[in-house]
Amino acid sequence: MQVANEQAVFESTDVSGTVIGYFAPKMFQGMAATGYHLHFLADNKSIGGHLLDFKIKEATVYLQPFTSIEQHLPIDNQKFLNKDLDIADMHDQIQKAEG
Ligand SMILES: [Zn+2]
Fold first, then answer.
1. Where are the alpha helices (DSSP H) in 11-86?
2. What is the pLDDT of residue 71?
3. Integer Cα distance of 30 and 88 in angstroms
4. Cα of 84 to ligand 1 centre, how many Å?
5. Measured in angstroms, how far is the CA atom of residue 78 from the centroid of ligand 1?
6. Domains in the chain, please, with CATH?
7. C-alpha span between 32 and 25 (Å, rounded)
8. Do 37 and 98 contact (CB within 8 A), yes or no?
9. How far is the CA of 95 from the centre of ligand 1 (A)?
10. Phi first, then psi: what are they for 86, rounded to 5°?
């Protein structure tokens, strides 16, 4: 997966903003990136994206448990249906991108 190999990494300090994401148990590996998957957007929109690491000085935390998951697949797309996926390679690339 080329995107994971070319992921740009930025660092910033003393930024206020919003972190949003989810926690997926290991049993959902492949359907989602398991563990914590968090994204950030600065209040002034100066920086944002997938979070690899961070420290929080002060935060308000909201949690929402999910009791169901829906996945929509493009079953009318022949290219999707004929795609030969290398699942092991996809898993390795997700691990590299998500840390
Ligand atoms: Zn992400």
1. 78-82
2. 85
3. 10
4. 24
5. 28
6. 2-98 (3.30.1330)
7. 9
8. yes
9. 11
10. -95, 90
Enter the pTM of the model: 0.69
Average pLDDT over residues 59-72: 92
Sequence-ordered list of residues with C-beta below 8 angstroms from that of 80, at least 6 positions apart, any chain: 73, 74
Three-class secondary structure of residue 43 per DSSP: coil
Q: Which tens digits make up the pLDDT trace of 14-59?
A: 999 999 999 998 888 777 888 899 999 999 999 999 999 999 999 9
Mean pLDDT over 52-69 rounds to 93
The torsion angles phi and psi of 40, rounded to 5 degrees, stand at -130, 145
The answer to whether residues 49 and 39 touch, using CB atoms and an 8 Å cutoff, is yes
Q: How far is the CA of 40 from the centre of ligand 1 (A)?
A: 9
pLDDT at 1: 37
Residue 22 in contact with residue 37, Cβ under 8 Å? yes
Please check whether residue 81 is in contact with residue 75, taking contact to mean a CB–CB distance below 8 angstroms: yes
The Å distance, Cα 10 to ligand 1 centre, comes to 14
